[in-house]
Specification:
By secondary structure, the protein is mainly alpha-helical. It is built from 12 helices and 7 strands. It has a domain of about 230 residues: Glycosyltransferase (Alpha/alpha barrel).
Length: about 350
């Protein structure tokens, strides 16, 4: 892609090809492609990858001020954080701080949550994977208000989007005038009361990260609860379905991106909890994806993992490669190799 489509940031394939001109729905993925380059550089120390990673990360810098999305963690934690760790340049750290401060502007004081890109009354489970940049920024500048925003968002998400059995809702709706919770709903799941698998994986990983920053036991408990649901309801030697509640039939098919996120999240949970059962589960899942779903078996296919799903109802990237699936799969592979090479 670097050679054939220079400067292009892939999102999902259409017939195996990244460049197709179909809609994005929202611009949340630009960090994953350069993020893969940073992972490759960190693993290999090959300067080619660092040069490309910097080249593809730099154009994202204006997004630190982007108030239209809830995805600044996805964009900057995968790019500017490894860049700063590699260089120590304080200007890169300032981008991370500003991005965290910008994301915090989405906080709804009535309701205590970061609103999604859709509407003030909307809370997405996905934001658990982005709130880490607010924790990160708060720690760097010792800002208690920022820290409180991040913590309260996690507590609200835990209360209203994580169910008693560890499953999750994609979206919660609040009364924007009073902050009162109204209902669980979904944009991408099978039903309003179903468990959209990628959302569950976001929660599994996101609450583990929230615990990493806060050391608040409730967040670790929630990450464990979501992991237990994932492990109990996913096939032992296959990728999970795109939603756990889809009945058997032609509409029930896998989402390897949910599996890749879950694998990376389980590695993360093993690290923050010290419980190696999560690492073993992550190794099994990563091996399954690498054995059954590599796109290299399909000539001309441009992605890494087959059978990812972006948006089922909009028919976007269904049973295709998706860039976040490839990114988290690579992240899981790196985690699997830690200490073994």
């Amino acid at each position: 892609m670097i050679e054939t489509e220079p400067g292009f940031y892939p999102m999902y394939t259409e017939g195996g090809h990244w460049r197709h001109g179909r809609e994005s729905w929202t611009h949340w993925c630009e960090g994953f492609f350069p993020g893969m380059m940073w992972l490759l550089w960190e693993r290999t120390k090959d300067n080619y990858w660092r040069e490309q990673a910097e080249r593809y990360s730099k154009p994202l810098e204006p997004r630190q001020h982007d108030r239209d999305v809830h995805d600044l963690g996805f964009i900057f934690l995968s790019t500017y954080l490894p860049w700063y760790r590699a260089s120590g340049d304080p200007a890169l750290q300032q981008v991370l701080i500003t991005a965290g401060q910008t994301l915090a502007m989405r906080f709804q004081e009535k309701g205590k949550y970061l609103r999604s890109f859709l509407a003030p009354e909307s809370l997405f489970i996905d934001i658990m994977m982005n709130v880490g940049i607010i924790f990160h920024a708060a720690g760097l500048v010792k800002d208690q208000k920022l820290w409180t925003i991040a913590r309260q968002h996690c507590l609200t998400t835990r209360r209203y989007l994580v169910r008693g059995d560890g499953s999750t809702s994609h979206e919660g709706i609040f009364d924007p005038h009073t902050g009162e919770f109204v209902k669980q709903t979904t944009q991408q799941g099978y039903r309003n009361d179903s468990c959209w698998t990628r959302g569950l994986a976001w929660a599994l990983y996101g609450f583990g990260t929230a615990y990493h920053y806060s050391r608040e036991a409730a967040f670790l408990e929630t990450a464990r609860h979501c992991a237990a649901f994932y492990l109990e309801h996913s096939p032992a030697n296959d990728a999970p379905p795109w939603d756990y509640d889809v009945p058997d039939g032609p509409e029930r098919f896998p989402d390897t991106s949910a599996g890749a996120i879950a694998a990376a999240g389980l590695f993360n949970l093993a690290k923050v909890s010290g419980d190696q059962k999560y690492r073993q589960a992550a190794l099994t899942l990563t091996a399954t994806l690498a054995t059954k779903y590599l796109a290299s078996r399909k000539e001309g296919w441009e992605g890494v993992l087959l059978d990812g799903v972006y948006h089922k109802h909009k028919n976007l990237g269904v049973r295709e490669s998706v860039i976040w699936g490839d990114y988290f799969f690579l992240q899981a592979l790196v985690a699997a190799l830690e200490g073994e090479a």
